């Protein structure tokens, strides 16, 4: 157990060393400064910008920006939906898969366009190589880039600058951040054992004479953008637990780090773009502490093991159900908290079989949405929480709330509240409906309190645009595909619209000079108050569900006293 | 309207970049430079016949082999797995009676075979394809295999050590014994 915690601590040291480098690099990219990659990237990028007709594009207003996000995303959905529904007539389909049902295809398209990658299917048995590469792999780049673009527009607005052009930022995010890192990362994964082939599954006779079918595919290039873009949709059904997606502890380390660097680094980027790096660092450490606490809780629970099973064994052994030997309890716990915190949603062990402490931590991540948070949006939400805290503390001490030198007024608070409120609405209402019809709708596969968690988790994962699941849930049904699609869309586009309107409205305000009377937000005290506000707001909204789910389940597991 | 045109143009160009150029580049590097890994790390026996993948587990039930972990998808073997291949976990919650009865039965079976139940031999893996068992789970099986194959336990012990994949950099992850490669090595000495 000690060695396990040592691995976790060392990992966190690596994260703290690497994330700021990414953060500074992203700041350089969006400030338009020179980098050493320019000689290679600039010509290619000009070609793409020119081909898209946005080479000398003007900055957009809030309304134009939102329109661009919605129209481009809608067109991507239609385009990829067509690929799915025609996959039996398209090439690269070695196992001759039929087109998926319309509701599954619709759910998959919405799920991947919203950077969620919730999967109600298994990759190897449902989508052809063409659908995976040409549909899902494409959306993995564009959905991640959409999140980054929105986040950058948001911070530009908050600091009084023009929002920028959506298409330019979308393309630049891909050419300068996502694609270069993916190329290097994919080659590293490939060398470490992740396959990359267009050949169909291998048919093999095992040592004991059984017929084994080994699914293959173009995995390496898909895997890296899955992690880097916080996408999380596995090439294979079982995601990064599959030895072909994550064969050893080098790949596991790489995949864990790479899913954290953009959301963690973006906080530092925000500090730099807001011309207040200290503010960025304070928020970084606040999130880091919450993250560390949740990892500790999860890992501790897994190391204690399942008391009911320990009874049978006659000794205490870690819970290994749904875990791979090579990762063990420590790295599975680390991954589970990282993937739900960052809204990646990939898994290297099954969350459904985690101990209740793990269920509590992963659900809390989905509810709070800011323990690093989604690609771009997570950092934006953190700043929304800062704005709300300024408003709350401003009320307490009787000062006009100001943030980054601009007044926070009614319109901003209304928009911030919308962002905060959409989340519980998109989770709790559909969950209540599903739970009201346990036989026909819910699809619960585990009895008792855990079943409630399964349903709530699925909607929380959809609304938070995470994509992981308590995968025992029987979710490939018309009800689940459509109701989860509602949570996916509401959890993605309503907050994005609110963020852009908020940034637009702040950008139009006159700057207020800072005086001795200004409430400073870049102090440890204010950061602590912000952490308190986040936890209290989250707890007020979701504690009842947590009590009915993982907390009750934990009590249920205590052996009869 | 302008947005539709720009969206369409950027989708086409970004699609070519991320779906054609990027994967083809990685495919070429894989197939030319690292064809073993790129094609699934398949391994062959002494006769040169492919018997599996070095990083995908298999079912072993025979007395003369080391046994793998329980799998919810039978290691993608049999007619259910054909033609696509499958992966999967039990997804049973810790308090699910099904999990407990499955583990109880398996512990009883191992006990009857004279194998001490070790956690990873009872708990089903995440992928259903886990190629490893823990060194402890290998150790408790040595005696059975030594008796069956009439080789000295110390020789098997040596093989187990040889096929134990350690932690990355000695730090990250848990050591695991590659069951297929170990069993293949056993076949090759006797």
From TrEMBL, chain A:
Membrane-spanning segments: 6-27, 65-86, 136-158, 170-192, 253-273, 280-301, 380-401, 413-437, 478-503, 524-547
Top-rank taxon: Bacteria
Family: Belongs to the KdpA family.
PANTHER family: POTASSIUM-TRANSPORTING ATPASE A CHAIN, POTASSIUM-TRANSPORTING ATPASE POTASSIUM-BINDING SUBUNIT
Pfam families linked to this entry: KdpA (PF03814)
Transferase among keywords: no
Primary role: Part of the high-affinity ATP-driven potassium transport (or Kdp) system, which catalyzes the hydrolysis of ATP coupled with the electrogenic transport of potassium into the cytoplasm. This subunit binds the extracellular potassium ions and delivers the ions to the membrane domain of KdpB through an intramembrane tunnel.
Membrane topology: Multi-pass membrane protein
Gene Ontology cellular component terms for the protein in this record: plasma membrane
Primary localization class, coarse: membrane
Organism per entry: Gomphosphaeria aponina SAG 52.96 = DSM 107014
Keyword entries, A-Z: Cell membrane, Ion transport, Membrane, Potassium, Potassium transport, Transmembrane, Transmembrane helix, Transport
Subunit: The system is composed of three essential subunits: KdpA, KdpB and KdpC.
Gene that this polypeptide is encoded by: kdpA
Record-given protein name: Potassium-transporting ATPase potassium-binding subunit
Entries under InterPro entries matching the protein: KdpA
Cell compartment(s), UniProt: Cell membrane
Gene Ontology MF terms in the entry: P-type potassium transmembrane transporter activity; potassium ion binding
Automatic annotation (TrEMBL), chain B:
This protein's GO CC annotations: plasma membrane
Compartmental location: Cell membrane
Keyword terms of this UniProt record: ATP-binding, Cell membrane, Ion transport, Membrane, Nucleotide-binding, Potassium, Potassium transport, Transmembrane, Transmembrane helix, Transport
Record InterPro entries: KdpC
Entry keyword annotation includes Cytoplasm: no
Main location: membrane
Pfam families: KdpC (PF02669)
GO molecular function, one term: P-type potassium transmembrane transporter activity
Membrane topology: Single-pass membrane protein
Coiled-coil annotated residue ranges, if any: none
Transmembrane stretches, start-end: 12-34
Ribonucleoprotein listed as a keyword: no
Function: Part of the high-affinity ATP-driven potassium transport (or Kdp) system, which catalyzes the hydrolysis of ATP coupled with the electrogenic transport of potassium into the cytoplasm. This subunit acts as a catalytic chaperone that increases the ATP-binding affinity of the ATP-hydrolyzing subunit KdpB by the formation of a transient KdpB/KdpC/ATP ternary complex.
Family (UniProt): Belongs to the KdpC family.
PANTHER family (alphabetical): POTASSIUM-TRANSPORTING ATPASE C CHAIN, POTASSIUM-TRANSPORTING ATPASE KDPC SUBUNIT
NCBIfam families referenced in this protein's UniProt entry, alphabetically: kdpC, PRK00315.1, PRK14003.1
Subunit and interaction comment: The system is composed of three essential subunits: KdpA, KdpB and KdpC.
Full protein name: Potassium-transporting ATPase KdpC subunit
Lineage of source species: Bacteria, Bacillati, Cyanobacteriota, Cyanophyceae, Oscillatoriophycideae
Gene of this entry: kdpC
